[in-house]
Write a structure and sequence with these properties.
This protein is α+β, with helices and mostly antiparallel strands and 404 residues long. It has two domains: 145 residues, Four Helix Bundle (Hemerythrin (Met), subunit A), CATH 1.20.120; 146 residues, 2-Layer Sandwich (Alpha-Beta Plaits), CATH 3.30.70.270. 71% of the residues lie in helices and 9% in strands. The strands form two sheets. A five-stranded mixed β-sheet has the order 2-3-1-6-7, sandwiched between helices. Strands 4-5 form a two-stranded antiparallel sheet. It is elongated, with a radius of gyration of 30 Å.
């Protein structure tokens, strides 16, 4: 009997010590989780404020560029505006360096951020080139106005940079939300476990041995639930990733997807690529409205996917600009034949909302060789420049990129 009592006392003592240890551990974990959630929220707020500030300065720069494009003010005033723009870019550079120094940012966030930085640098470089030409009175070229350069070259760089910055904020916010949601679930689970242990310890320590089976079953159920939650989170992340790489209107891959798909091929692969843009597409929106324009683009996209989805990877890289990366098995001459067919499909009449419309299209084709371009942006610049030349010569044609 004494031996039994000793065993019972030992069991109770062990249970009491275990209860104290578990309670202390749970209290520490609660504090850790609370501190982690607070720190994550504060860091997210700081990074978002930094990016929003950069975006604000880009908007301010754009407004000042527009005053120069519009020819507002004296030459001396415009020079002052140019100096203020340069100062704003210096300020943006400091903020970008600050953002890059932040710890804990995901690879996806930093990738979008670095893309944005590339476009901001290209935006600044292009503006400096234009300002130097204005200062030296060299001119922008025959028939080319400052407004043309702004619309076709400068503003797209600024717009893309802003979109990349917004994308980096959204990705970072999504990452933070997932981390905080996970921490919150662990926090609640920890509280429940602590409360359960306290109640069981106070009321029924002597039932520990019998209770262990039930606790094990509960733990297994929680693990199953966590696995289900993990599977759902994985599915949600995949859907979010797919949305980030897809044009919602046409269902095609977008500019970011193109960057992901061919960046690694630039140094070692040769391939055939072409871009097309509808001529005077703005007339469709101005005449029939944006809803009609969206339906028109969707109809074109469906036709392109149906006829050329097996011969090329198709991207809708901007509103009405499509890019085709032809499969490796097709030669340059075969790809050029497809280019002509694509041009024919783009310029065919389409009936949308009981109205039949037909536009011309311009394009550029490129037989890419390894090492021709440093990045996807420079590749697209070559193609877009060649395509703009086609548009300037009347449009409705496809020019070939010629390497110098």
């Amino acid at each position: 009997m004494a031996r039994s009592n000793n065993r019972s006392t030992t069991a109770y003592t062990f249970a009491a010590i275990l209860l104290a240890i578990v309670t202390a551990a749970n209290m520490f974990l609660v504090f850790y989780l609370f501190n982690s959630i607070t720190t994550t929220g504060r860091n997210t707020s700081t990074t978002m404020n930094t990016i929003n500030s950069v975006n604000g300065e880009l908007q301010s720069i754009n407004q000042r560029v527009l005053t120069i494009v519009a020819g507002i003010g004296t030459e001396q005033a415009q020079q002052g505006t140019i100096q203020s723009i340069d100062a704003s870019f210096d300020s943006i550079e400091e903020k970008l360096n600050t953002f890059e120094s932040y710890e804990g940012l995901s690879d996806a966030t930093m990738k979008r951020f670095r893309h944005a930085r590339v476009f901001i640098e290209a935006y600044r470089k292009r503006l400096n080139t234009i300002f130097d030409q204005m200062k030296s009175q060299e001119g922008l070229g025959d028939g080319v106005t400052l407004a043309d350069v702004y619309t076709q070259d400068i503003n797209p760089l600024k717009t893309t940079a802003s979109e990349m910055l917004v994308a980096s904020i959204n990705i970072n916010a999504a990452d933070t939300g997932r981390r905080q949601a996970k921490s919150a679930k662990v926090f609640v689970a920890t509280e429940m476990i602590m409360l359960t242990i306290l109640i069981l310890g106070e009321l029924a320590i002597f039932l520990i041995s019998r209770r262990s089976k039930r606790v094990n079953a509960e733990l297994e159920e929680r693990e199953k639930n966590l696995q289900e939650v993990g599977a759902k989170l994985k599915s949600t992340r995949q859907k979010a990733s797919d949305l980030a790489l897809t044009n919602l209107l046409t269902g095609m891959k977008n500019r970011y997807a193109l960057d992901n798909d061919i960046s690694g091929r630039l140094e070692s692969d040769r391939f055939n690529i072409a871009v097309f843009d509808m001529d005077n597409f703005r007339m469709i929106n101005d005449t029939y409205g944006y809803e009609f324009g969206d339906e028109y683009l969707a109809a074109i996209a469906d036709r392109l996917k149906e006829e050329f989805g097996d011969v090329a990877e198709i991207y809708n890289i901007t509103g009405n600009e499509f890019c085709f990366v032809f499969n490796k098995e097709y030669s340059e001459s075969q790809s050029m034949a497809f280019v002509q067919k694509i041009h024919s499909v783009l310029t065919s009449p389409y009936t949308v909302l009981n109205l039949t419309v037909q536009l011309t299209a311009s394009g550029a084709a490129y037989h890419y060789l390894p090492g021709d371009c440093l990045n996807v942006n420079s590749l697209l610049v070559k193609l877009d420049t060649t395509m703009r030349n086609a548009k300037m010569n009347g449009g409705n044609m496809v020019n070939t990129v010629v390497n110098m």
